[in-house]
């Protein structure tokens, strides 16, 4: 019962480095999301994919790109990491767009120095 | 004013206590309401949806007051395992009658249940 799997769990980057966060779900959900969570802030939507083949910007998309590789996988890329991108990143999925519940992955703790 | 506001707490209560959390939302276009639970350094998980008529799940009761634009969560007979952060989540549409919208997460209310 894997649900939503994110990799890596932890990552430290230097400013300017790039990396891709991977996310996969095995629940046959149509919609997938990337959120970031910072201390004192609610979860904020970075990008989402309503269905395979579509992606849209969320509340805080600057500095990120996404790829909906297939129905299962939705990756988040940081092209040139900045300290402001230090955060905990959560991938989530749901059967349809915003159809509750959202199923979250375990999160990726990213530090940019 | 933040779109979804919660008292951050922490609420420190003894085992067996009854504790209530409130959440206010500012956008009257909000349609659906949820409580999620997030344990320390873990992912959020849906606790319960909130319906207009109010709903109960064991020791947990959720209420919605559309006129006053607030949602509440009541936990009876608190257990140590209830210690977590409780997130108020609101779904609102962007266009009247449409399905496009956004889930807005509150910052969460931290609950600590002590022996």
Protein model, in words:
The complex is a heterodimer of chains A (113) and B (115). With 113 residues, chain A is mainly beta. In chain A, 0% of the residues lie in helices and 49% in strands. In chain A, a hairpin with a 6-residue loop joins β5 and β6. By secondary structure, chain B is mainly beta. In chain B, strands 2, 4, 5, 9, 10 and 11 form a six-stranded mixed β-sheet that branches. A five-stranded antiparallel β-sheet of chain B has the order 1-3-8-7-6, with no helix packed on it. Chain B is globular.
What is the percent of helical residues of chain B? under 10%
What gyration radius of chain B follows from the Cα positions, in whole Å?
14 Å
- Structural class, from helix and strand content of chain B? mainly beta
Distance between the termini of chain A: 35 Å
Order of helices and strands of chain A: EEEEEEEEEEE
β content of chain A, as a range?
Answer: over 45%
Q: Biggest interface in this structure? A: A-B, 19 and 22 residues
Please give the number of β-strands of chain B. 11
Tell me the overall shape of chain A.
globular
Given helix and strand content, the structural type of chain A is mainly beta
Residue-averaged pLDDT of chain A, rounded? 93
The proportion of strand residues of chain B reads over 45%
Unreliable parts of chain A: none
Enumerate the spans of chain B where pLDDT stays under 50 for 5 or more consecutive residues. Answer: none
C-alpha termini separation of chain B: 37 Å
The overall average pLDDT of chain B, rounded, is: 89
Provide key terms for this protein.
heterodimer; A: 113 residues; mainly beta; seven-stranded mixed β-sheet; four-stranded antiparallel β-sheet; 11 strands; 49% strand; globular; B: 115 residues; six-stranded mixed β-sheet; five-stranded antiparallel β-sheet; 0% helix; 57% strand
